[in-house]
Design goal:
four-stranded antiparallel sheet; seven-stranded mixed sheet; 54% strand; 0% helix; single chain; 115 residues
């Protein structure tokens, strides 16, 4: 079955960095549109970063210049490098992959930014 497994979350101080990983099985990520979303309690899940099957990227305005999405096709893994983290970045981060009407989600990984 298809699985997306996020890892790399944790607690950091403001200004710190984390790299999230999303390891896929059952699908080949290079053929999918893949994104990172985040969600805080009682709020809508929002798109953070997106990478197309062709490698094009898009970012939410709030993370432009600080976050970078990338994909390692050999490892079938998508990454989110998060720099200059702020308290507002605290959320559960989810990986997803979309193709031909199918949408797959990971289980989420918690990121907490606090002093």
């Amino acid at each position: 079955q298809v699985q997306l497994v996020e890892s790399g979350g944790g607690s950091v101080q403001p200004g710190g960095s984390l790299r999230l990983s999303c390891a896929a099985s059952g699908i080949i990520l290079s053929g999918f549109s893949t994104g990172w979303y985040r969600q805080v309690p009682e709020s809508q899940r929002e798109l953070v970063a997106h990478i197309t099957a062709g490698g094009g990227t898009n970012y939410a305005d709030s993370v432009k210049g600080r976050f970078t999405i990338s994909r390692d096709n050999a490892k079938n893994t998508v990454y989110l490098q998060m720099n200059s983290l702020e308290s507002e970045d605290t959320a559960v981060y989810y990986c997803n992959a979309v193709l031909n009407g199918y949408r797959y989600w990971g289980q989420g990984t918690q990121v907490t930014v606090s002093s």
